[in-house]
Specification:
The protein has 437 residues and is α/β, with parallel strands linked by helices. The protein folds into two domains: 279 residues, FAD/NAD(P)-binding domain (3-Layer(bba) Sandwich), CATH 3.50.50.60; 144 residues, Elongation Factor Tu (Ef-tu), domain 3. Helices cover 32% and strands 16% of the residues. Strands 10-11-12-13-9-14 form a six-stranded antiparallel beta sheet. A five-stranded parallel beta sheet has the order 6-2-1-7-16, covered by helices on one side. Strands 3-5-4 form a three-stranded antiparallel beta sheet. Helix 2 runs parallel beside helix 10 and helix 2 runs parallel beside helix 12.
Length: 437
């Protein structure tokens, strides 16, 4: 009987275990929670969303929107659960984080082909194994991987999470509901600031006291999840062209765009909790309370969770992994998730999906399905395994790693939408073979 060990029940591990199990493979899913947690985890559920509750853009003019649609059409467990627990978020797919994780956990625990073992893994198991232990892999397992890979200086960057506030504590006389350019439904709470308020906030932010994080430096952060204070130090107006961009969000009191806008996004289905969009931070907690309360609508905000920062580890994947995320030197071992060098919730899910599908086919004596570079799933795996990439860092899916069209299309959105349609036509053509068990 074919049996695979999957280490870690995050987004990648859960998706991988599910895809294997759906194809008749017996899976032992080893997860260290609830016996041990990392600093970023707060629940015992699988697929816990530690940072934002957003899976980012939903439209097909976005590369991550394409990646989600590919996974959706190929029966991804993560996308199924995300769609079922979605909360309003304008043009993005955001979820009730607790409802989402609970739904994934129930599906995994109830699958007849999956056995969950709650323990910390300190040795690499024999047989076929998928290491999806995440960016916060325990020291014991990380040490074993360093020996296996001959790399005692594992690559890493730093990641951060944004604070959460109670909706009832937001001063709605100083805020308003809207989505940028009225796109979708008015799901975001917008907290405007005039120039004087913004400059006072910016000056307090760049001078605020940070928590000590061993090894942290401003340049050693992932650009897509940069602490707000690091971004602020790049210049007075950097935030106004980033997470505090006011364009397309006119204040109904004036009819004009404010000088700056802080957006809050719903974090649960009840709408009782909101997160500060783009406010990943590693300021000390009292400093977060002091500085963020300078935002007029948040002057009396009740913070349900303060932002935190943690170290993420990842492999030098172009040197180590093939297009199926398998270890070149020992193909019985595969990696999935952020450790493999993909960045983002959806990208982690996609890597787990591909590993699960290809490993099941190999164990069943079938030929691999080579997702082409024209698909987002294929482009991501091929980028991560591209040994011509010299300065490798974790990366979100983007249209830059997907081959261009063979004809000109006017307008970036139109071009991206056409790239997505080309990709989805390929996915539809191979869907039956991918889903075969």
């Amino acid at each position: 009987m074919n049996r695979v060990t999957v280490i870690g029940a995050g987004l990648a591990g859960s998706e991988c275990a599910w895809q294997l199990a759906q194809r008749g493979i017996q899976v032992t899913l080893r997860e260290m929670k609830p016996l041990k947690r990392t600093p970023a985890h707060v629940t015992d559920d699988f697929a816990e969303l530690c940072c934002s509750n957003s899976l980012r853009g939903a439209g097909l003019e976005n590369a991550v929107g394409l990646l989600k649609e590919e996974l959706r059409r190929l029966d991804s467990l993560i996308l199924r659960c995300a769609d079922a627990t979605a909360v309003p978020a304008g043009g993005a797919l955001a979820v009730d984080r607790h409802g989402f994780s609970a739904m994934v956990t129930q599906a995994i625990r109830n699958h007849p082909n999956i056995t969950v073992v709650e323990e910390e893994v300190t040795e690499i198991p024999q047989g076929d194994v998928v290491i999806a232990s995440g960016p916060l892999t325990s020291d014991a397992l990380a040490d074993k991987l360093a020996v296996l890979l001959g790399d005692t200086d594992t690559l890493h960057f730093f990641d951060a999470a944004a604070p959460l506030v109670a909706f009832e504590s937001v001063d709605m006389t100083s805020a308003y509901f809207a989505s940028r350019y009225d796109k979708g439904t008015p799901d975001y709470i917008n907290c405007p600031m005039d120039r004087e308020q913004y400059l006072a906030f910016w000056q307090a932010l760049i001078a605020a006291e940070e928590a000590e994080v061993h090894g942290f430096e401003d340049h050693n952060v992932f650009e897509g999840c940069m602490p707000v204070e690091v971004m602020a130090r790049r210049g007075e107006d950097t935030l106004r062209f980033g997470p505090l961009k006011p364009k397309g969000l006119p204040d109904p009191k004036t009819g004009r765009d404010p000088y700056a806008v802080v957006q809050l996004r719903k974090d649960n289905a009840d709408g009782s909790i909101y997160n500060l969009v783009g406010f990943q931070t590693h300021l000390k907690w009292p400093e977060q309370k002091r500085v963020f309360s300078m935002i007029p609508a948040l002057q009396n905000a009740r913070f349900l969770r303060y932002g935190v920062m943690h170290r993420n580890t990842y492999l030098d994947s172009p040197r180590l992994l093939d297009r199926y995320y398998r270890l070149k030197s020992d193909p019985r071992i595969a990696f999935a998730g952020q450790m493999a060098g993909v960045e983002g919730y959806v990208e982690s899910c996609a890597s787990g999906f591909l590993v699960g599908v290809e490993l099941a086919r190999r164990l069943q004596g079938k030929t691999p399905i080579d997702f082409p570079r024209e698909t987002a799933i294929g482009a991501l795996g091929l980028y991560v395994s591209n040994d011509s990439v010299t300065e490798f860092q974790p990366m979100n899916i983007n249209f830059g790693i997907i081959p261009p069209l063979d004809h000109r299309v006017k307008g970036k959105r139109n071009k991206n939408a056409e790239l997505s349609q080309r990709s989805l036509a390929i996915i539809d053509a191979i869907r039956e073979e991918v889903l075969s068990t």
